[in-house]
Amino acid sequence: MITGKNYIGNQLSATANRTFKTFNPLLNIENDWNITEASNSEVNQAADLAAEAFKTYSKISGATKATFLREIANEIEALGDDLLEVYSSESGLPNGRAMGERGRTLGQLRAFANHVEEGNWVEASIDTAEPDREPLPKVDLRKMNIALGPVVVFGASNFPLAFSTAGGDTAAALAAGCPVIVKSHPMHAGTGEMVASAVIKAAEKTGMPNGVFSNLNSSGIEVGQTLVQHPKVKAVGFTGSIKGGRALYDLAAKRDEPIPVFAEMGSINPVVLLPKALHNRAEAIAKTYAGSITLGSGQFCTNPGLIIGIKSQGLTNFVNNLAEDIVKIEPSCMLHPNIAGAYQTNKKNALAQSGLQVLAGYEDSVEPNYARQVVTTVEGDTFLNNPTLHHEVFGPFSLVVQCENKAQLETIISKLEGQLTGTIISDDNEISEYPNVVNALQNRVGRIIFNGVPTGVEVCPSMQHGGPYPASTDSRFTAVGVDSIKRWVRPFSYQDWPNELLPDELKNENPLGISRLVNSVKTTANI
Amino acid sequence: MITGKNYIGNQLSATANRTFKTFNPLLNIENDWNITEASNSEVNQAADLAAEAFKTYSKISGATKATFLREIANEIEALGDDLLEVYSSESGLPNGRAMGERGRTLGQLRAFANHVEEGNWVEASIDTAEPDREPLPKVDLRKMNIALGPVVVFGASNFPLAFSTAGGDTAAALAAGCPVIVKSHPMHAGTGEMVASAVIKAAEKTGMPNGVFSNLNSSGIEVGQTLVQHPKVKAVGFTGSIKGGRALYDLAAKRDEPIPVFAEMGSINPVVLLPKALHNRAEAIAKTYAGSITLGSGQFCTNPGLIIGIKSQGLTNFVNNLAEDIVKIEPSCMLHPNIAGAYQTNKKNALAQSGLQVLAGYEDSVEPNYARQVVTTVEGDTFLNNPTLHHEVFGPFSLVVQCENKAQLETIISKLEGQLTGTIISDDNEISEYPNVVNALQNRVGRIIFNGVPTGVEVCPSMQHGGPYPASTDSRFTAVGVDSIKRWVRPFSYQDWPNELLPDELKNENPLGISRLVNSVKTTANI
User: Fold this and answer.
1) Predicted confidence (pLDDT) per residue in A348-389, tens digit
2) Is there a contact between A490 and B446 (Cβ–Cβ < 8 Å)?
3) How would you class A345 by CB atoms within 10 Å of its CB: exposed for 0-12, middle for 13-18, buried for 19 or more?
4) Rounded to an integer, what distance in angstroms lies between the CA atom of residue A308 and that of residue A290?
5) Quick one: pLDDT at residue B1?
6) What is the full DSSP assignment across A55-103?
7) Which of A9, A398, A482, B152 could form a disulfide linkage to A49, CB 3.0–4.6 angstroms apart?
8) Could you tell me the sign of the dihedral formed by the alpha carbons of A495, A497, A501, A502, in that order?
9) Cβ contacts (< 8 Å) between B125 and chain A: which residues?
């Protein structure tokens, strides 16, 4: 079922002789299948095919792209339980999560299908000519978004479906009209191949050009580096660590022709606990956060790794309750021994920091690759003076910072690195007493949450997933929701172009019936 | 009138003792006024003030920003003829051009005022909660564009008003809610100070926070480098050379926190002459292009530096006519001796390339700093094999490439670097015989023109000014038109946020009456 080969366009290919295996963290054994590393010539072939496919694929209609995207969703569904089994055996994630993530993946593909079929996303704008204008005649100008070129997608370790092979980045790029080359995540390369086979089947069924999609395997960094530096690659999407994302960003920035890299990276997702809220419901908040911290073994980019409050009886109650609740939760399996190992190392490093106190940690013996959750606490001063404490410990780890006063709370927030999210836990009107806290938090995050938890990323148009660096490399874009298509397009203007040669989106007769800005007025009317 | 001082927020300041002078290229003498270099501490003060001003300025309403922007325009107008005189004495550009460029500058400021007053630019999006959704409740999410932070603007040498102190970049950034620090162009620092005084007056009259605008003088590169590396600076706008833009881009990419740099750089703006058009009207095309090549001494980023055709009698006629016409045009003064000198050097370097033939050049003696125009020609093969010929010679220089056939024409276009514009000169239906030429050209440019000239950039919503690298550092944005505001903003989401604390753009009652995407439907209705 799993060949372990790469997809170079529509062809399975394995010309190199280096292979690797994926790992089942639940069983603590390697999976059976061998995955073949992509060779340099396969990388080049994939890039050449993508550049060639771009010539036609970038021009096909939104309706045709929608058919393709929906067919990808159908083909992934058709993989049935086999996909879910491989998913779990390569990630240790339970069947319920697998089903949920598959549903999200299909939903994203179909949402992008609807988005490009509806067609307004191209932001068509038309300014008609004024040949008699004085002192100079005005030309006819028409603008719309067009595809950037071949896009390389690096899948995420923690979302083998929704942020990997046919996940959000791929769906957005294909919707935009960009061929995609996936650098498959080595931890779930088998899952990746299965999904890639679905994409290829869909491409063939719907008549897409060969090269619109390729899937390359690699357990090292060279294939990714070569792709990011390849002159035919025009943009990069990445989900993963700060170190990995920054390395790719740096490579792309050093190219003769720099290209955009949208990397969604680390975040500790600060949660601010206001005093009245703590006074009134410390216990309930602690219970909610014990759940949020340990959800999915803490392996979410929106995991709340930092909780900040002002010293009070309420905060003490919260801390005590959190300590009690956190150890009641059964540990769960992490994605891979390497991730479990990194969690151990990073946790140990954090715990070794001077002034850090462990509130509670799960101590019973656990299965291999299972993560023992821990919550810790530290004084505001200590936190401010130790940058190590500002860094993410990927896993079920959280740090409660106890501030001396409101001023220190503000200072701490303003010194945080960029984050995906920030949360404020407040009593009904309490938050209005903290305008500076809210402002400071807003400056550091992409999404701000009132009385909730940061985990759980709704896929909808109003979701912003991406924040100031290092949450992402370019806070001007989102990685989730249909607006993520904007990462892979550029505006393009036609001046005095013959009507019959314009794309349908810009023709006088508006054959697609889309909403356009015509002489600065939004309308679906003809010209 | 001109103090030569820097504006550090609302205060004139000159703490350093190094000064420089601007130059009148028409008279070939230095201008009277001394300009004082900004000191390191002034740079830091400007950044500190901008970061402080950002806290309030980023939150004020679109209507208030509109008042500020319109007042800037009024104050620039109030400078009257004095401004135009200094403009001409620092650029050598004639009064008519000065008036035109001032009109454009005022028009841009007022267009952005209208844009933010209307308010739809924030792209408000609301997805309301579904507390009863199964299996998980849906949260309330609301998204809009917010300002990035303090922006540094590097003015252009060739547009002392429209792309400098209060030019397009500054107007867009102020409209977005970003304080602006201008690194004034040293060639027209007096003009810059006058415009800066107008901005400061407007800021004070309309009650803007101190630091919303600063203007720093420097004849070297250190001030600019310090600004781009300053932690409080969050984005950069630049118009100028590839070398300068790339250097700033590289600095910004190497920061601990990389920031976006939108640099609008060089372009040779290829013009493709199709055979039938040449057969029927070689003479008229030559005449038009002789004008376009020499317009403003060729000192436009849209100057047509490369003309490409297929060998034919028509092309020979065009070349002969262009040679005749180009020398009939009176040379004009360049902006500065350094620019005139660079033109001489680059022209000489180009002319020294093997296989390059001079078709015609103005040879009569000219005033100092005046540019002698030249048109040259080369075989397709020679052009393909010599990268030097692909580089811009900033000034009234153009190269006609004579291709062997259609295939070579396509190859040449596909090998070009990224460009702001590409033009196709075609007979009525001729262009439809060249789909590959059109596609190849589209991939290399940001704006494509049918039967026109690239010079003349209309300021309107449908204008795209920015193309694949090195035309600009990020082709996903434009430097001209109201959409250029998108460079300085990021999307931001509020989750379950109390209605009364939301910005007006996202409140249930839609107090601004803007168009919003509510549960995926565009509407101005309340919720």
Assistant:
1) 999 999 999 999 999 999 999 999 999 999 999 999 999 999
2) yes
3) exposed
4) 15
5) 80
6) HHHTTS-HHHHHHHHHHHHHHHHHTHHHHHHHHHHHH---HHHHHHHHH
7) A9
8) positive
9) 461-462
Gyration radius of chain B over CA positions: 25
Give the type of residue at A232: K
Query: Which pLDDT belongs to residue A326?
Result: 97
> A424, A403 in Cβ contact below 8 A?
no
Instruction: Give the pLDDT of residue B379.
Output: 98
Cβ B183 vs Cβ B223: under 8 Å: yes
Q: Which residue of A has its CA nearest to B485?
A: A476
Contact A253 B249 (CB under 8 A): yes
**Closest chain B residue to A100 measured between Cα atoms?**
B135
Residue positions counted in chain B:
527
End-to-end CA distance of chain A: 55
pLDDT score of A301? 92
CA–CA separation, A4 and A35 (whole Å): 4
| Mean of all residue pLDDT scores within chain A | 97
Query: Which of A149, A258, A448 is closest, CB to CB, to B495?
Result: A448
A114's tokens:
């609807």
CB contact under 8 A, B473 and A139: no
Q: Which of B143, B249, B456 sits opposite A462 (nearest CB)?
A: B143
Question: DSSP secondary structure string, B480-497?
Answer: SSGGGGGGGEEEEEEES-
If you ran DSSP here, which 8-state letter would residue B209 be given?
P
Fold of B271-450: Aldehyde Dehydrogenase; Chain A, domain 2 (3.40.309)
Contact yes or no for B462 and A139 at CB 8 A: no
- In the set B178, B301, B333, B403, the catalytic residue is B301
Q: What is the pLDDT of residues A112-157, one digit of tens each?
A: 999 999 999 999 999 999 999 988 899 999 999 999 999 999 999 9
Give the whole-angstrom CA distance, residue B71 versus residue B171: 12
Average pLDDT along chain B, 527 residues, taken 10 residues at a time: 96 96 98 98 98 97 98 98 98 97 98 97 98 93 98 97 98 98 98 98 98 98 98 98 97 98 95 98 98 94 96 98 97 96 96 97 94 97 97 96 97 97 96 96 98 94 97 97 97 98 98 97 96
All residues of chain A having their beta carbon less than 8 Å from the beta carbon of residue B497 are 448, 450
Domain ranges of chain A: 6-20+31-265+477-487, 271-450
For residue B62, CA distances in Å to A373, B55, B66, B197, B505 come to 47, 16, 6, 23, 10
**A1 pLDDT exceeds 90?**
no
Alpha-carbon distance of B459 to B101, in angstroms, equals 12
Percent of chain A surpassing pLDDT 70:
100
Among candidate residues B509, B485, B368, the one with its CA nearest the CA of residue B65:
B485
pLDDT score for A266: 83
Q: Any catalytic annotation for residue B257?
A: no
Least Cα distance to B74 among B201, B204, B258, B251 occurs for B201
B264 is a catalytic site residue:
yes
Q: Is the dihedral of CA A205, A211, A212, A214 positive or negative?
A: positive
Cα–Cα distances (Å) from B127 to B151, B495, B523, in that order, read 31, 10, 13
CATH classification code of A6-20+31-265+477-487: 3.40.605.10
Residue B21: how many other CB atoms lie within 10 Å: 17
Predicted local distance difference test score (pLDDT) of residue B266: 83
> Under a CB-based contact definition with an 8 Å cutoff, are residues B274 and B308 in contact?
no
Backbone φ/ψ region at B44: left (φ over 0), alpha (ψ -120 to 50), beta = alpha
CATH number of B6-265+477-487: 3.40.605.10
Question: Does residue A23 contact residue A63 with C-beta atoms inside 8 Å?
Answer: no
What pTM was computed for the model? 0.97
Interface ipTM > 0.85: yes
Report CA-CA distances (Å) from A454 to A284, A339, B132, B219, B470: 16, 22, 20, 49, 40
